[in-house]
Amino acid sequence: MPLRKVSYLTLLTLSLLTVLAGFFVARLRFNYNFNDFYPAGDPDLAYYEQYSARFGNDNDYVLLGLEAAPGRTVFEPRFLTRVDSLTRFIQQRRHVLHVSSPTNATNPVVEGFGVFNLPYLHPQEPARRAADSALVYRTPGLVGNLIAQDARAVTILLQTSPNLSKPPGDSLLAAVRTELARQGFAPETYHLAGKLVAQSVFVDRLQRELVVFMSLSVVLVTVLLWFTFRTWWGVVLPLVVVLGAILWGLGLMSACGVSIDLMTALLPIMLFVVGMSDTIHIITRYNTELGYGTGKKEALLITLKESGFGSGLSALTTSIGFFTLMTSTIRPIYNFGLFTGIAVLLTFVLSFTLLPAMLMLLGKPQLRIPRAEGHSWDGVLGRLFRTVLARRRLVVGLSALILVGSVASASRIRINSALLDDLSQNDPVKLDFGFFERKFAGVRPFELDLQPAPGRTIYDLAVLRQTEKIEGYLQKSYGLNFVASPVTLIKSVRKALNGGLLTEYRLPDSEAELAQLVRRVKLFRNKPEFRALVRPDASEGRLTGRMPDVGSVRAGALNADLRRFLRQQVDSTVVQTRLTGSANLIDKNNSTLTINMITGMSIDVVMVTLIVLFLFRSLRMTVVVLIPNLVPILIVAGVMGLAGVSMKVSTSIIFTIAFGIAVDDTIHFISKLKLVLLQEPNLFRAVRKTYLMAGKAVIVTSLILVGGFSTLIFSSFDGTFYVGLLIGLTLLFGVVAELTLLPILILYFYKHKPKEIRQPVPVLGG
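RE: above sequence
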């Protein structure tokens, strides 16, 4: 079949597949699910899911902080009236299960067989203001939880439906903000925090940043392609190929039911800059052949034959770099690795189907620089090659010195993360969360499961006393600013039965008194706080609390001390405990980050080793290839250590991705060298010819990669910022190592044994 007909058929087939991909992309949705960042398959996750099914999730809430006017306190009647009105409004909203507010907090008193809930605050009775405020400050659980210590702010806590998705969550937040404006609260006087707030902001920013980064990348790559090829088709064709691959990748992701989240949002940008490599190598090689007077058809066939092998291997190594992220137990990272790896392979397929078909149907291009005038790139690269070899001792010595310093600096990297790690310190959302850290109990939840020993219930006096001991430790040594447990319930009931006197807020002295209290507990069973702390049959209890977000390193140390206290100071024959909760699961991710990173890097290195062994049958050549690609990784690790950048979920992917991408140009280089050696038995001349052939494509693709990743530094997410910055630096150091260390190492280590040359094979260009 004639090549033109094959080209038309190829374009028709690819167009139909692209339309199908477009159909699925139209159904793609943005999402940020906090729960997705739990370690999948972990026993602690399974335990927490069962625990939350019994007691509710510890992060299904929204905190609303309200500040009093300057110079005034929250006990002003007008302020409290507005708070009360707002509280009633929120209580009537859909998806709000319960509202805790200073104006609906009550002091229960039992008289006869009835329970009277006496409010702590009386906004309509100004004369009681002094007495009310005095009572509030004497009552445990109010100051620091609902009312700030300095009496300048209050909190309203909204308990929401479990795992509320973004649309209803956004509707609820919009309604609250509208009512706040109607009540006269200026934006600077109120603060919102919680999973719903982060979910709403993250998704909106993902959508905005995806458009911005893609636009910046398209502009940047277009400029670089124009300066490289100086032809319209040298710009348009690579863009068509890569944008088609992005469409296919996103369509596949949508067809598999995966949404765009904080990690998969990187796929289009990542693919856009990475996917350019094959198209640039093909067009550069095609241009070179045309420049040497080869016909269009022959030039295209030679290009596909000679570029296909190297491009296939580089696509394989790059995709493996992404596939290794599937070792992660964090679902967003797993999905990102899987679909980006597949999309890289799809880019390779399109580069060797769509691109040749379009080149075949275009007329023979007029080259800007005829062969007779020579190639300016040859002169530049030739001088660079001579300089590198002339100063090889300086290059090697300087590289060794930088490497030693980088390794020393890299040892300072610490694994640490916080709940809002991906937001910068001055981000409005983080500032709002910080408000609750300063003024109230904090935003980091704490959960401890309480299991009475066989034959006991959670209301046994011995169990309650052990629980009270744990509470004391958590408040004095662990750092909880708010705590609630079955002990809280019994103390509250005892106080209610004794006229609401604060002096009676304590555990009973005898089993007989406790038995009377337990019988009266049923009077309070309908109160949400009671249902959330004890199972109806008293077979299990929950100790919950809040504290500042101290970060995973500090939390790990606190948890180790807590477990030691529980082992040594709590009688396990009375009550058994287990630390659980969403914050505990997020922290646990850090324990697997290093293992996942080492596993991913090891798989990458093994695969590259096998590829080089397959090509050259030489262990020496394996070392030659690995060194220029591992050196940039170690240098960037040193930069991280020097800059104090912590290893966390978002930054843990940097090294495996960077290695997989950086080795791409090396694979192209050595595969071309393999072909050149079939024609040129002299190793020095073969390396020089390969350097001149591959140098232009290596430099151009590296500039595009570095430039593309550098657009990510404008992200408002710290994780995305560091991914762009550090991968960009790795690739920048990588191209320097490629053009300096690689030729030196090949000439020094590789022992080439010339084979009989059956017939010359013209191998030119990149």
